[in-house]
Every structure is written in C-alpha cells, then in structure tokens.
Amino acid sequence: MTTDPTTGTASGWDQAVFRCGRCGAELTATTEDNYRRVVGVHTDAHALWDRLNPIEREGLASILRVILAAPDLGTEFLALMDRANQADTRGTPHTQETHR
Ligand SMILES: [Zn+2]
After folding, report:
1. Count of CB atoms situated within 10 Å of the CB of 35
2. Ligand 1 mean position to 12 CA, how many Å?
3. What separation in Å is there between the alpha carbon of 60 and the centre of ligand 1?
4. Helix axis angle, 71-90 relative to 54-69, nearest 10°?
5. Is there a contact between 66 and 76 (Cβ–Cβ < 8 Å)?
6. In terms of CB atoms within 10 Å, which of 27, 84, 89, 100 comes out highest?
7. Residue 86 alpha carbon to ligand 1 centre in Å
8. pLDDT for 49-77, tens place per residue?
9. Terminal Cα distance for the chain, rounded
10. Of 6, 8, 30, 27, whose CA–CA distance to 18 is shortest?
C-alpha cells in the first residue's frame, strides 16, 4: 500500500482543525491559506463581538440574518444608500423637483 500525501496540496497536509480557546468553536481548513483565512475571520468576529454591547449584538445579528439570507438585497440597499447620499451632497433631493 502506498501512502502518498501529495493530494494537490504542496504543504502535504490534508486538513487542519482550529479550536478556539475563547468560544470552543472547531473550524476545519483544507489548505494552509484556507486555515489562515478561517482563523483570521474567526478572530475578527471576536474583535467585532467585543466592540458591541449585547443590544448592538442582537441588532447586528438580526440585520445579518436578513442580509445573509438575501445577499442581493444587501447590495441593492447599499446602492440605494449611496444614491441617496450623493443626492444629499449635491443638495438636490430627487423628490418631485421637475413637475410644473
Ligand atoms: Zn472563538
């Protein structure tokens, strides 16, 4: 039987498990880059968590549930927001300006 570790990854490991000391989450990564990204995102999530109070966490969580269920909605909402902000800085709101 040949045990050949070269399964597409240059580093030679199939997967690695990151276990978070703070929340106990276990995250599995299949490449070294993926591992760094997974751990980085998890660390960022903790940093964000630490900045928010419990009410803000609830608010953000409910927003994220909406956005993550419909990412296009989030994109469109931001586009609307940018358009509204541009209108504000130009000082000309787009509401009923051009009727007689
Ligand atoms: Zn954690």
Report:
1. 19
2. 27
3. 18
4. 110
5. no
6. 27
7. 39
8. 999 999 999 999 999 999 999 999 999 99
9. 86
10. 27
Paired tokens of 28? 């599995």
Output the CA 38–ligand 1 centroid distance in Å: 11
Other Cβ atoms less than 10 A from the Cβ of 13: the count is 13
pTM for this one? 0.62
| DSSP of 47-100 | HHHHHS-HHHHHHHHHHHHHHHH-HHHHHHHHHHHHHHHHHHHHT---SSTT--
